[in-house]
From TrEMBL:
It holds the Pfam family BPD_transp_1. Keywords: Cell membrane, Membrane, Transmembrane, Transmembrane helix, Transport. The chain crosses the membrane at residues 9-30, 135-154, 166-192, 222-245, 280-307, 327-353. It is found in: Cell membrane. InterPro entries: MetI-like, MetI-like_sf. NCBIfam families: PRK15133.1 (NF011712). GO terms for biological process: microcin transport; transmembrane transport. It comes from the Bacteria. This is Microcin C ABC transporter permease YejB. It is a multi-pass membrane protein. Belongs to the binding-protein-dependent transport system permease family. One of its GO terms (cellular component) is plasma membrane.
Length: 364
């Protein structure tokens, strides 16, 4: 097992370099970089969403000075080349692409992610600031989806082919097919002041007066804000786990040891939960880390924007739109690294649950 872990850790290095290298290469050909974004603002042709939300224009004024910037472009057809050169140097575009990439990777190895282009703060502080919202969504959607999926999957396996199994499968397939963001919009229209009811808030993780609330009122307020986002994410989140649980139980129920247990006089509940459960849940339990990463990083992107939740998904979206490359690449690096580590952890969980599995006997 030690050799397997070492191989997996070593393989993470070229994987991370490949992910970052391809992303960096694509960015080089993407129009409208940060320099162009600033030029568009200076010439009155555009305005960055990040600057509107977080005062990025003030940061530029501090760096270059109001008088200097105004003098450079007021009444002119274009911008002074000297100012453009300053912008390129400020954003690091005065160096060749390969040098910039190598510098970036060297800094990332030391977990030095630099500062945001348009927000007067470090990237790591931004990520830490936005993480509680995304963690809340990821943790609760994982708890709710597994709490629904496992009992439902077991019930479907026991009642395989029955009317209950058929109609619940139809509901699951439909729920999985409906995009979570589309269902989220429907929930807003129905229950968040869209066209019908105004029962739930549409912005933030807590209310403005959260600090003045009692402890139980804080709990109620917290879940009041999370209700619609969690429902929107839950619709498709439990489908895969439900069917996976059902199929795992069906496979185990057909095995010889189950026939033997029944022949010994054990009732169906003893057979199901005393013998089948541990083996059938192997693949489901081992997939928990991956399911959390999926809910944490991918599922919340559109939901955070739809419900105006200021988490990592919304941060990543605004960073891409505004070409805030330090934030974009830092979040990509962290998420990719965590994904690879979680993949390794999932394999180790397999061996912990079932010692019969030995990854050293197969190729990585």
């Amino acid at each position: 097992m030690g050799a397997y872990i070492l191989r997996r850790l070593l393989l993470m290095i070229p994987t991370i370099v490949g992910i970052m290298g391809i992303s960096f290469l694509v960015i080089q050909f993407a129009p409208g970089g940060p320099v162009e974004q600033v030029i568009a603002q200076l010439t009155g042709q555009g305005d960055s969403a990040d600057q509107r939300l977080s005062g990025g224009g003030d940061m530029l004024n501090q760096q270059f000075g109001n008088d200097e910037m105004n003098a450079k472009y007021r009444g002119a057809q274009g911008l002074d080349p000297e100012l453009i050169a300053k912008l390129e140097k400020q954003f690091g575009f005065d160096k060749p692409p390969l040098t910039r990439f190598l510098d970036m990777m060297w800094n990332y190895i030391r977990f030095d992610f630099g500062e945001s282009f348009f927000r007067n703060t470090t990237v790591i502080d931004l990520i830490v600031e936005k993480m509680p919202v995304s963690i809340s969504l990821g943790v609760w959607i994982l708890i709710f989806s597994y709490a629904i999926s496992i009992p439902l999957g077991i019930k479907k396996a026991v009642a395989d082919g029955s009317p209950f199994d058929v109609w619940t499968s139809g509901v699951i397939v439909i729920g999985y097919a409906v995009p979570s963001f589309l269902f989220g919009i429907l929930l807003i229209v129905l229950f968040a002041g869209g066209s019908f009811f105004d029962w739930f808030p549409l912005r933030g993780l807590v209310s403005d007066n959260f600090a003045q609330l009692s402890w139980w009122e804080k709990i109620v307020d917290y879940f009041w804000h999370l209700t619609l986002p969690l429902i929107a994410l839950s619709l498709s989140a439990f489908a895969t786990t439900t069917l996976l649980t059902k199929n795992s139980f069906i496979d185990e129920i057909k095995k010889q040891y189950v026939v033997t247990a029944r022949a010994k006089g054990l009732n169906e509940r003893q057979v199901l939960y005393g013998h089948v459960f541990r083996n059938a849940m192997l693949i489901v339990i081992a997939g928990i880390p991956g399911a959390f990463i999926s809910a944490f990083f991918t599922g919340s992107l559109l939901i955070e924007n739809i419900f105006s939740l200021d988490g990592l998904g919304r941060l990543g979206y605004l960073s891409v739109v505004n070409r805030d490359y330090p934030v974009v690449f830092a979040t990509l690096y962290i998420f990719s690294l965590m994904g690879l580590v979680v993949g390794l952890v999932s394999d180790l969980i397999y061996t912990w649950i079932d010692p019969r599995i030995d990854f050293d006997r197969r190729d990585v």
